[in-house]
């Protein structure tokens, strides 16, 4: 009796407000946007004519699209949320590391302020020696000059190296995150055509999605970010 009522009265599956039910809380799209998602595809989609079971508008293709739409929305939705957070964190972290790295690289270069101070001090000593009639050759020569080469200690070298690796990893994560977000956007892009064409296109995209291990790539990005953070913390300890 319930099945007969559903067939004769399309509004029997509607809620109190007269709106269609949603599949897992998602708005249905495409060819199945006006159907009730109760899992009974024989009622939602009309039966196929004889010898048209695999035709362009066959029930099997509409059923396939209805099932895969919900699956894709759930998988891609969860992945996008994590990627958005990862992109924000990678961007802010890279900015912090870049600022500290700019300051740390100065320790690898010649400190010309110190060179100037040393030469001025030597000049003052020479003037004093001349004033008192002492020998100028007795004045010690400054060890610093404009041609002096930088000789950073190992601590500064390690600090800059660790922070450089950390910055490279964080920028790589940011770049990979942007690329993955573009992949996901293209994966869910709406395409025209018959249900059969849309089903073939979706399956082609899903095959590529699995072949390139996109979900595994998304899972590796936080690990790389943690490694980058570890390098930064070690360098920070050496810097301080």
UniProtKB/TrEMBL annotation:
The chain crosses the membrane at residues 161-180, 214-239. It holds the Pfam family DUF6535. The keyword Hydrolase does not apply. Residues 61-240 form the DUF6535 domain. Keywords: Membrane, Transmembrane, Transmembrane helix. The keyword ATP-binding does not apply. Signal peptide: none annotated. InterPro entries: DUF6535. Residues 1-20 are annotated as: Disordered. This is DUF6535 domain-containing protein.
